[in-house]
Design goal:
Elements (H helix, E strand, L loop, with lengths): L1 E11 L5 H12 L2 E6 L5 E8 H11 L7 E9 L8 E3 L4
Parallel strand pairs: 2-5
Antiparallel strand pairs: 1-3, 1-4, 2-3
């Protein structure tokens, strides 16, 4: 069964390749959605896919790429429609 989650990632997650890393990781796991920077220095993502793949992506997001220092990942279930594929969006 497919699910959708909104993630808010805080810490040192901007300027460290976090969005591109998230996109590559999501595509490898066959997870749909998007990722973008927020003006408050956090990163947010909307992820959609099979529960086991989402769990793996969330686990990896808690670590991020080598230069990142993740403080927290806030996970909120949601019902938003997600287009196929995974995109890196502009800052909101």
């Amino acid at each position: 069964m497919k699910k959708t989650y909104h993630l808010k990632i805080t810490g040192r997650v901007q300027g460290v390749w976090y969005r591109a890393w998230t996109r590559e990781t999501a595509l490898t796991l066959h997870v749909d959605g998007w990722v973008r920077n927020r003006l408050d220095s956090s990163v947010e993502a909307l992820i959609h896919g099979e529960e086991d793949k989402l769990t793996k992506l969330i686990e990896l997001c808690r670590k991020g790429p080598p230069a990142a220092k993740v403080d927290d990942v806030i996970i909120t279930p949601c019902n938003e429609t997600v287009a196929p594929g995974f995109v890196q969006e502009r800052t909101l």
